[in-house]
Specification:
Helices cover about 15% and strands about 40% of the residues. It is mainly β and about 220 residues long. An eleven-stranded antiparallel beta sheet has the order 6-5-4-3-2-1-11-10-9-8-7. The longest helix is centred in the N-terminal third of the chain and has 16 residues. It is globular. Keywords: Lipoprotein, Signal. This is Outer-membrane lipoprotein carrier protein.
């Protein structure tokens, strides 16, 4: 249940840790959403809001495609740093250290990693956050005070679709959903997020638990 989220989103924030999926066929360019002027303005507000989130700490609830629920904590420090831990008894975790995203599989006692730029986590971890260029907005939906924006990587849309869900009034990121290449959906809802908090830099260092070294 955990791997679809990790493989597709990294996210993180989650949600944002993807091992790139190698494809043998050329993929068609993603179809960009036909945005109205108002929607483009909303996209601009979303970019400005996300770009202003330099650090974040939040509890979360992750819902798997099979209806299962797990809880955990996510820490984010832009640019390019993130940590995601699950509550016990789950010992899997994700760390983005500034260059790579690492995923620790406790059952297998091994880690896999990928450059941040090859993962969907890059969408919200990058320094200059823009939902254009190498990111394509494929869908935009507003209902009452809720805005949903779906994006893919322009050059590699097959890595998955990330949908960011915002509460508008004021604008706040509340959750995200990931549709992975296997067609599985994982949703992560933030609970009591804290923005602009001071975070220990040791959070963003990957340490192999099998080596018996603990994070301070």
């Amino acid at each position: 249940m955990l791997r679809p989220f990790v493989l597709a989103a990294g996210l993180a924030l989650a949600s944002l840790a993807s091992v790139p999926i190698v494809t043998t066929m050329a993929q068609a360019a993603p179809a960009a959403a036909n945005l109205t002027q108002q929607q483009r303005q909303d996209i601009g507000r979303i970019e400005q809001y996300l770009d202003g989130v330099k650090t974040l700490k939040s509890d979360f609830v992750q819902a798997g495609n099979d209806g299962s629920l797990v809880k955990g904590t996510i820490w984010l420090s832009r640019p390019n740093k993130m940590r995601l831990e699950y509550d016990p008894p789950i010992k899997n975790f994700v760390v983005a250290d500034g260059w790579f995203v690492f995923y620790w599989d406790d059952e297998l006692k091994q880690q896999t990693s990928a450059p941040i730029g090859s993962t969907m986590a890059d969408v919200i971890l990058r320094d200059n956050l823009r939902l254009s260029g190498d990111i394509t907005v494929t869908d935009f939906h507003r209902e009452a005070n809720v805005i949903e924006v779906s994006v893919v990587q322009t050059k590699d849309p097959g890595t998955g679709v990330l949908t960011l869900v915002f509460e508008d009034g004021p604008l706040r990121l509340r959750k995200w959903r990931v549709l992975d290449p296997q067609g599985l959906t994982t949703e992560v809802a933030l609970l009591n997020p804290q923005v602009g908090v001071s975070l220990d830099r040791n959070l963003f260092i990957f340490r192999d638990p099998s080596m018996g070294v603990r994070r301070d």
